[in-house]
Amino acid sequence: MPREGPRGYQKPWQRGTSGSTVTARVSIGPPAATVHGLVEAEAALAAAGPGGVLLLSAPGAAGFAGPAWFLAMVAEAAARHPGVPHRAALDCGDAAGTALAALRAGARLLVLDGACPAFAAVAAAAREAGAAILPERPPALDLGRLDLRRRADMARLAAWLAIEAPQEGGTPPAS
After folding, report:
1. Could you tell me if 111 and 61 are in contact, meaning their C-beta atoms sit under 8 angstroms apart?
2. Rounded to an integer, what distance in angstroms lies between the CA atom of residue 139 and that of residue 25?
């Protein structure tokens, strides 16, 4: 039986019919890599496949590093790797004010804890600004835990970025 995520919620690809393993693989967006600086953002872009990569900030980075730093870092990494499909998500923790400041600074994809009392209001502001808010961090490979000078760790990053998460409605394995 699939394990449940936080608050008892199961991701769509964790559900199966009659406890079966879901085998169909359909992209639900690019895989995410947690980046802490320019070197890691560049490594993620260099290793990204044709589906691209989601550059995800460290948890709560909007509050301690600020949106301007993150947006500038992503822009510089993208300029050094033109044509690589990517998105950038800035994690605001549970700080609604920080999320609103990030929207004003130009961030277009944020992570804001879904349990934040002001989540709905911030989500409405994001929609008006043409931005989106995720209520939880997507699964991501934390590049701060890798030594990107090592060939094995670069291979691990490349393998992670090649993953596609299956969605609900997949085909159960043949009996």
Report:
1. no
2. 16
